Amino acid sequence: MTPGKVVITGATGFIGSAVLAELARIRDESGSGFRLRTVGRRAPQGAGADEWVPADLSDPASLSGVCEDADVLLHLASFIGTDERQCDAVNVGGTAALMAQARKAGTRRIVHLSTAAVYGPGPHRDIPVGGVVPAPVS
Description:
The protein has helices at about 15-30, 85-105, and strands at about 5-10, 35-40, 50-55, 70-75, 110.
């Protein structure tokens, strides 16, 4: 089943921009007609998105309605840096607010990408949940 609308956060980042480009390529080659809505502080560069909604994960109120009419949410955005408050505001509070918007809109599928980089340099093997103190790196 082809989704009607896909919402993408993080489309200006390294992973998100590659995902957006690939989805646009698939859409255009297949003629499937699904729509791509990007959500972020700035519009992604280049072709691909059908719509850009300005929003900031550190400002939950700005996320109101971003998942409206969406079949799929790809949450690929994060803050990786040393500012602990900003990390928490974006990665915890922003993600929770975004998920609430997806639930409210009835979004059927959610993909949330994360990274071991939030725990600093690895290796990260055989570690229990909550067993490593976050030490974000890029």
